[in-house]
Design goal:
six-stranded mixed β-sheet; OB fold (Dihydrolipoamide Acetyltransferase, E2P); single chain; 2 domains; 33% strand; four-stranded antiparallel β-sheet; Rossmann fold
Length: 386
């Protein structure tokens, strides 16, 4: 299995051509939208720019980012479905820019399953081996082995339309695995599934990776998929790599404000434009904190900073700042408390334990304690300084 190295990879898609009477108005609208995208050139929209990265052999790497960030473009470049306008794609130090997709020993699992509707589950899974003219007995043994791994052994005679969404995605994964490729690429494979099915398939996919040790590259905009599945996370925004690190580092030491807010976005508190004195001191909700010498150096001549803290790192305490509860919500085992202090919204998270279900009422005064060791501090460019 190869180590994949990408060097200075850049991809530009030409602007939409506008011609003819039919659909001209719609094409002009698309062209206008393309020209207003964050990064464009005379040639077109820059979907991915100067991307550098290494995907280790046998690793599970998740490429994470919002819609339009360049995730799928990166995946297609690795697959050989797109050729970058600039840069190099290497498999084990062998340049593969001009190697076609069918010669890269790469399999893909798509969002929309892409199964053959008139073929049974068995036939769909067996197809990659049949086109290689593998003996029938070997194909049957491999199909049964893969079907058992993905709990499809009792569904082999069914057609795709007789399966649930989760079962269809299992078939798509089985069809990719049976080829025994060196790399499997996943393009938002769970986005059409309900919450419970996503959770179930996450568990199965993680177990499959641990069993087969194939290189997995998984593209998603869902932070929960990324945090649960990945050994390493690559975060993209507007075609630019923001961070490439372990799951722990991405969550605990985000490289910039965007990464901090994107991971754990629903419970991340960000307080902007906080004045910083010449002595490196700043105040948040009436409490004074002090920057270290290293943090002051990174902040430079800026007179303000942004401070963030995750709701899971806040606590209700008699020693905290005064706040008023606005409302609460429950998400699985978490009780999320929305409060206000000095006209700023604060979100804190507590684990449900039965006794705190009705503990907080709308309008109730509470005190929220901030521990500065959990602060994420950013300069005005959004770069981390601590």
């Amino acid at each position: 299995m190869p180590k994949i190295t990408l060097k200075d990879v850049t991809m530009i898609y030409p602007f939409q051509k506008v011609s003819g009477l039919f659909g001209r108005k719609q094409k002009q609208l698309i062209l206008k939208q393309q020209q207003e995208m964050p990064y464009t050139s005379n040639e077109g929209v820059i979907a991915l720019q100067h991307f550098d990265g290494v995907i280790e052999d046998g690793s599970f790497t998740v490429v994470l980012g919002p819609s339009g960030s360049g995730k799928s473009t990166l995946l297609r470049i690795v697959a050989g479905l797109e050729r970058p306008v600039l840069g190099e794609v290497c498999f084990d130090d062998v340049l593969c820019n001009d190697v076609p997709a069918q010669e890269r020993d790469v399999a893909m699992v798509f969002q929309n399953y892409s199964l053959y509707p008139n073929q049974t589950v068995y036939q769909n899974i067996a197809f990659p081996l049949e086109v290689k003219h593998i003996p029938r007995e070997e194909i049957e043994a491999e199909v049964k082995k893969i079907a058992k791994l993905l709990r499809l052994d009792e569904k082999l005679n069914r057609l795709p339309q007789e399966l649930s969404g989760g079962e269809r995605q299992r078939v798509a994964i089985a069809r990719a695995l049976i080829r025994k490729p060196s790399v499997i690429l996943f393009d938002e494979p769970f986005s059409n599934l309900d919450v419970l099915m996503r959770k179930e398939l996450r568990n199965e996919l993680k177990q499959i990776h641990e069993t087969c040790k194939t290189t997995f590259i998984y593209v998603t905009h869902d932070q929960y998929d990324a945090l649960y599945l990945a050994e390493r996370i690559v975060i993209l925004k507007d075609g630019i790599k923001q961070m490439d690190a372990s799951v722990s580092d991405v969550y605990n030491y985000p490289a910039n404000r965007f990464c901090a807010q994107f991971i754990g976005s629903s419970t991340f508190n960000l307080f902007e434009d906080i004045p910083v004195g010449k002595d490196g001191r700043y105040k948040l909700f009436g409490q004074t904190y002090e920057l270290t010498e290293k943090q002051q150096k990174r902040l430079g001549k800026a007179k303000t900073l942004d401070a963030g803290i995750r709701g899971t790192n806040l606590a209700v305490s008699d020693l905290g700042v005064d706040a008023i509860v606005e409302y609460t919500e429950m998400i699985e085992a978490d009780l999320i408390v929305h409060a206000k202090a000095e006209e700023k919204e604060i979100i804190l998270v507590e684990k449900m334990n039965g006794s705190n279900e009705m503990k907080y009422m709308r309008g109730q005064p509470i005190r929220i304690a901030f521990d500065p060791k959990y602060f994420h501090l950013f300069n005005q460019n959004g770069e981390r300084i601590n």
